[in-house]
From TrEMBL:
InterPro entries: PPM-type-like_dom_sf, PPM-type_phosphatase-like_dom. It comes from Amycolatopsis echigonensis. Residues 1-21 are annotated as: Disordered. It comes from the Bacteria. Residues 9-20 have a biased composition (Basic and acidic residues). This is Protein phosphatase. Residues 6-218 form the PPM-type phosphatase domain.
Length: 233
């Protein structure tokens, strides 16, 4: 679309039975850009997959003027309406002049991209991060135990930040918990590889989870690739 940034996304289920990650993007009439959302279902079952799809779609379609926290809460309402126990973690990036306002729950991440390096914008809501920030011991398993989720988060528990950067990367933990920051930077230095190379590399290096990335190119990038990815309606 004219006037909007180029973006691309890719996802692989890895060794899991199904892909419970989902992405969605929506540009409302009159909005300053595109709202992006990436969700990672909790578990490897149909309920987790559906929760992620519904959460991403509801978050992306929240009016920009409502803000990203409201987008998380809209996703929460949508997931709860499903019934059952399906749940997801979620990150949403809403555009404003020159950048994005971001909200998240769980361990889905957002990074700013300045054309040469990524800068992590979010802080994982996991038991490991909780204890790490308090200089307390933790086990590797705690890296995968989230302390907030779409279904359960209270408004005051939702993380928020913003970035003036035009370049943006959203990832599920199947990408960022496998790839070191230097590897992510190296891959994004060649924009033609973008999201697809991040996902493929994570799986090739032995990732055991679904791997999903959504990359929004800086405005001055000229080499572009678009990956097809099914999103919730």
């Amino acid at each position: 679309m004219a006037g909007y940034p180029r973006w691309h996304t890719a996802s692989e289920k890895g060794p899991r039975e199904r892909n419970a990650d989902a992405v969605s993007a929506y540009a409302a009439a009159g909005a300053p850009g595109i709202t992006f959302a990436l969700a990672d279902g909790v578990g490897d079952d149909p309920g987790a997959r559906r929760a992620a799809q519904v959460a991403a779609a509801a978050a992306a379609r929240t009016p920009v003027e409502a803000g990203p926290v409201k987008a998380i809460l809209a996703a929460q309402q949508a997931v709860r309406r499903l019934g059952g126990t399906g749940d997801a973690v979620l990150v949403v990036a809403m555009p404003f002049a020159g950048g994005y306002r971001i909200a998240w729950v769980g361990d889905a991440r957002a990074y700013a991209w300045d054309g040469s390096m990524t800068h992590k914008l979010t802080q994982d809501h996991t038991l490991a991060e909780y204890f790490r920030s308090r200089h307390q011991p933790y086990s590797p398993r705690m890296e995968h135990l989230v302390t907030t989720s779409v279904r359960t988060a209270k408004p005051e528990e939702i993380g928020t930040t913003e970035t003036p950067s035009g370049g943006l990367l959203l990832t599920s933990d199947g990408v960022h918990k496998v790839l070191p920051p230097a590897t992510i930077d190296e891959i994004l230095a060649d924009p033609a590889r973008g999201a697809s190379a991040l996902v493929a590399t994570a799986i090739a290096l032995g990732g055991r989870d679904n791997a999903t990335a959504l990359f929004v190119e800086p405005a001055d990038v000229r080499t572009r690739v678009t990956e097809r990815f099914p999103t919730a309606a």
